[in-house]
Write a structure and sequence with these properties.
alpha/beta, five-stranded mixed β-sheet, D-Maltodextrin-Binding Protein, domain 2, six-stranded mixed β-sheet, 2 domains, 11 strands
């Protein structure tokens, strides 16, 4: 099932309801305290990765939470299956949906999108002299834009995981991946050679929903802003 299929299957059943899309995994754990400060309390199993449910009621009768893959949050919001979402800035950079407005930096999920290569070759060559390079990544658009800015054509090997294996197995010279502590890179004898962007999670909203329902969407933006202690 594609992201668009999942989005269609989770369309709000009532026109007055709202859907908040949250990412599975690491960021979901960091969302709990923020949601609580915003006065939003989903069903207890919303952050239980063992739960088979994908849609959860909350203490707010007009708002449900759905739990989807981090890369899918932006798609759900862009195509209107969810009016609000929380996702990493890396996802917004990769997809660059014009239908999405990101009014708040939530300050959670801090990490970075970086270039890495084997420690044996790191720093042995001047990247500004390259004409092309093969890169393994789940961020093909970010990688191509980054290297194109330096006049280098990136031949992208699109992987969804285990990027760290690619250089050692001859799939690519470099990887572009999300880095938090760098421990996975070090464990696989890779060195972080360049930071493309520092990343945190953002509150995102569907632009059409904001235009057609400004009071209710704006109200939720205000609640999250207050939860962050912003005026």
């Amino acid at each position: 099932m594609t992201a668009l299929d999942r989005a269609a299957a989770l369309q709000p059943v009532a026109t007055g309801s709202l859907i908040l899309a949250l990412p599975k995994g690491r960021i979901l754990g960091e969302c709990g305290a923020l949601l609580a400060r915003a006065g939003l309390h989903p069903a207890p199993d919303y952050d239980d990765e063992a739960s088979r449910r994908l849609r959860f009621p909350t203490n707010e009768p007009g708002l449900d939470v759905v739990r989807v893959r981090p890369f899918d949050v932006a798609t759900f919001v862009a195509f209107g299956a969810a009016e609000i979402g929380i996702c990493g800035a890396d996802v917004l950079m990769e997809f660059d949906y014009p239908e999405i407005y990101a009014p708040l930096d939530l300050g959670i999920g801090a990490c970075r999108v970086s270039v890495a290569e084997p420690v044996e070759t790191a720093g042995s060559d001047d990247p500004t002299r390259w004409s092309r390079v093969r890169v393994a990544t789940k961020y093909p658009n970010i990688a191509r834009r980054h290297f194109a800015a330096g006049g280098v054509q990136a031949e992208v090997v699109h992987l969804n995981g285990a990027m760290e294996l690619a250089p050692g197995l001859g799939l690519s010279r470099l990887i572009v991946d999300l880095v938090q502590t760098g421990s996975t890179l070090r464990a696989n004898r890779l060195a972080e050679t360049e930071v493309i962007a520092h990343v945190t999670s953002r509150l995102i909203v569907n632009r059409t929903a904001l235009k057609t329902r400004p009071e209710v969407i704006g109200g939720w933006i205000a609640r999250f802003r207050a939860a962050l202690g912003q005026s």
